[in-house]
Amino acid sequence: MIPFHCETVLQTTTDRVWDLLSDFSLYPQWNPLFPKVTGPGTVGDRHELVVHLPGIDPFTVPATLEHKAEGVLTWRSTFLGRPLLVWTFTCRIEPVSPERLKVRLNWEFGGVLAPLFRFALGRPVQEGMEQLNQALGRWGEKGNVRCMRC
């Protein structure tokens, strides 16, 4: 199935953006798409993701952290087993130069129910990913925030 895709270029370092994406305790402070993640933070483990799509009340999704290294963060969740519905969210950081990077977001639905979810959630998913990229720009670009922990 064709994924939803969103990307942006930021004037910052990969380390700065990766610190935001990989520290789930900071999500309530800056992440509009996933404002809360509960779980151990380790690859392969189940977590509870609060998903806040524009125009839809926040809801909790059980998800497995599939990848968290080398500038790639991937979440996967299944509903009633893989044949019915699986969704995958991936955030990839690609360096463009030492002080510039591209953030690529992909959200994909798979399984028998995928066309229904893609149709019903298409606009909110796309808008949510755009809001996430904007938040990464606000919090990740140098000069915008001195310290997330202050």
Automatic annotation (TrEMBL):
Q: Which domain of life is it from?
A: Bacteria
| InterPro entries, per database record | Polyketide_cyclase/dehydratase, START-like_dom_sf
**Designated name of the protein:** SRPBCC domain-containing protein
Taken from the record, one Pfam family name reads Polyketide_cyc2
Signal sequence extent: none
